[in-house]
Amino acid sequence: MANFFTSSIGKKFIQxxxxxxxxxxxxxxxxxxxxxxIDSLMGKFGVSAPDxxxxxxxxxxxxxxxxxxxxxxxxIMVPILALGFLIHIVYGIWxxxxxxxxxxxxxxxxxxxxxxxxxxxxxxxxxxxxxxxxCIGLHLMDFWAKMQxxxxxxxxxxxxxxxxxxxxATFKSxxxxxLYIIWFxxxxxxxxxxxxxxxxxVGWNNKKWLPRLRVIGIIVSTLIxxxxxxxxINAHIEANYRTASNANTAAILANL
Length: 256
Fold this sequence. Notes:
Number of domains: 1
Order of helices and strands: HHHHHHHHHHH
Largest sheet: none
Low-confidence stretches: 106-117
Shape: elongated
Number of helices: 11
Number of strands: 0
Strand content: under 5%
Radius of gyration: 20 Å
Mean pLDDT: 75
Structural class: mainly alpha
């Protein structure tokens, strides 16, 4: 067993499985964020009940989604998914450094593509990963440190910020919106290649399934990124163009 995890196949297997955790984490996270867009369509953006109970009847969809993320089951599941996410990043960097040392240049860790020419994203998975990692740091400071961290560590003595407030505060500036969208594009490039490469590594690499997995990968990656892009653009519109028509947004912006 030890030889398997230190072998080339074992290393690729670990990276593939941890990549699956990344996809699940992003699907869950993106769906919860998209609830804020549904709130805007239903005229409930920024609506939070005055009480501190979970799943209050007066809460908007996004607030309810954040409440769901605070339930005991999710409190257990999210750290597990996040750990898989972290392993994927750290292990990917480690494998890339090993390849650099052994081959004299940065080569991707995935098994060789059956395509005649590898895509740009396939050849630059390490670079994409580093860019995405840097943006994750920004995202953690903008959201996680001001919400989940305060819930996980009560000793900090800080109340979690209103999720609508964080959306508006982050995406009100056009340049920060643009920065996030660029990040989402890099994320899409990383996921498109990583999705089918993940299945290829575990053996689904025959001529029948590989083309299908490429298409499925594009669909899943596009869906994930569109969820995040829609959330960011909607928050920017709420912060800059709907203040007059949405009293809840105006009240939140007054605290910025």
